[in-house]
Amino acid sequence: MITYKYDFVPAGEQALHIVFPEQVDVSENQLIQELAQQLQNTFGYEITDIVPAYRTLTISFDIRKTTYYEFSSKLKGFLAQYVPDTKNEHTRTFEIPVCYDSEFGIDLEDVAAFGNLSVTELIKLHSANKYFIYMMGFLPGFTFMGNVPDQIAMPRLSVPRASIAPGSVAIAGKQAGMYPVDSPGGWRILGRTPITLYTPENPLPPFQAGDWIKFRQIDRAEYAAIKELAAHSEYQLKIISE
Amino acid sequence: MPNIEIINSGLATTIQDLGRIGHQAKGIPVSGAVDQYSHRLANILVNNPEKSATLEFSLLGPTIKFNVETFIAITGGKSEPVLNDSSISLNTTYPVKKGDLLTFRPMKSGRFGYIAFAGNGLQVKPILDSQSTNTRLSLGGYYGRSLIKGDCLTINDCYQMPSLANRSLSLNEEPIGNSFRFIRGPQWDLFSESAQQLFMTGPFTISSEADRMGFRLDGPILEIPQKNMLSEGAVLGNIQITRSGQPIALLADRQTAGGYPVIATIIGADLSKFVQFASSCPLVFEQVSLKEATAALRSQYQFLNTLADSIYQKRYQYPIGPTRKASSKIAETILNS
Questions:
Q1: Residue A213 belongs to domain spanning
Q2: Is residue B233 within 8 angstroms of chain A, CB to CB?
Q3: CATH number, position A39
């Protein structure tokens, strides 16, 4: 049985949100990720797309095959019977190498000052934590992760930067993220990963919402070496637990 | 290889289909034709599956030289196409042969035009099951970009077009009225009653910030909800209200998720009319039920199905053919004799 309250909200005549309690919570989000998979398996015929987010599951369906009323009542029936997988055995943790060189981590000093820490302590704190991917989007491979330790949870810039380099590893309040492509943004940038997060030839990222991310500090030499490998698609992302 | 050559790019000419469906969970935008209805219609006219890749252009069409024998159909905004010095009609199938030149005058009205090519459309390698282009991400289509002078795109030769004589539609000149139907958005209730009223009173105009991602609307500024919201999946036709109180309608290249409250969703059946609507005209939004929205979109699909069926049914009616290969061979023989 699903212990969270949930509701159905139309998002168009061909889409609905299943809305769960408004919170940023790993267990709730793990249920949403699990449901995304199960609903896709069960209702793949009607579903055209399914997007798990923090507290919502957005399901698009084909109006030629079903309607909002018919489909939401099917979903209600399914969810009423649903037994969640409480063990969460399928969680993976990816290790992402990050170079915290001051050239890359342009906000290191500011965030360290915010947390009353030295830059070394800040890096240690940031890389010691494990981050859960709540959702992916707005760009291909952009990760909305949490939770950043309170001490360094510095709010985003009031005026976003026009351009942020691909691979930038950043925080915004309690959120953590990585920029897959050059884009504008107001997050605080702590470092850069040499791995390729997006290419037009192979646009899918290696990880998905529901996975965990752990950062490993690397120096400039290792950054260059991994970048070279990644450029030839020869770098194997390490999964530290499965 | 049979192909078409781009002699002049036109404006924002890209390869599009029905989009990269099913990968938004990983942040991949859907893309595809902004005006799906016109894209589908163009494909029906040349006997293609609905998903075949068409050329989409904005305001000014490309100049194309054909190194191929096939059939084409042009739909969407009133683009005034010219085939070898003769004006041709929209929503009509025409045979083209090697050496033919297609040009366009600037659109008289509308924004997006579509050119469909018989024989399953433009042949570019699909990425994640779609040939559509997203230029911001350099993804899909022809090297992930808009077409430029000198590009050569592979298409298939196609010699036969059943019921060619019946592939001409006299559709309503233009969809009537300046009203667009919407259903309440997921965050409708977060807005004050006066903001809701103002949204329905309008009027709005489509601003100059209007592209494949979305159209920003000028008009009354809406009071925004105090409450912040967590990002959630964004849906085609959603109207977000930005922090400055300005509405943005989300279209084909929209980002997969958004954190602005969504006051309304334009109904699918009115999207084609919306994306072709002129900047200079005021528009208003009219609330309808989910039931009406569903019925309207279904009847639009039904119209296209009926159209495809009725064209197919006429394949044995006079005039039959022409089966092009034969007719061109005969013409050649006569010329050479």
A1: 93-241
A2: yes
A3: 3.30.1360.40
The answer to whether A165 touches A185, Cβ cutoff 8 Å, is no
Q: Do A64 and B294 touch (CB under 8 A)?
A: no
Confirm whether A120 is domain-assigned. Answer: yes
Q: Do B185 and A204 touch (CB under 8 A)?
A: no
- Is the same domain home to A15 and A43? yes
The complex scores an ipTM of 0.92
Question: What residue in A sits closest to B296 (Cα-Cα)?
Answer: A13
Same domain? For A63 and A142 the reply is: no
CA A89 centroid distance within chain:
19
Q: Domains in chain B, ordered, with CATH?
A: 3-173+306-331 (no CATH), 179-288 (2.40.100.10)
Q: Examine the domain organization and report whether A105 and A64 are in the same domain.
A: no
Identity of the amino acid at B269? A
Q: What is the pLDDT of residues B289-302, one digit of tens each?
A: 999 999 999 999 99
pLDDT at B321: 55
| pLDDT band at residue B257 under the 50/70/90 scheme | very high
pTM, full prediction: 0.93
Question: What is the enclosing helix (H) or strand (E) of B38?
Answer: helix B36-45
Is pLDDT above 60 for B323? no
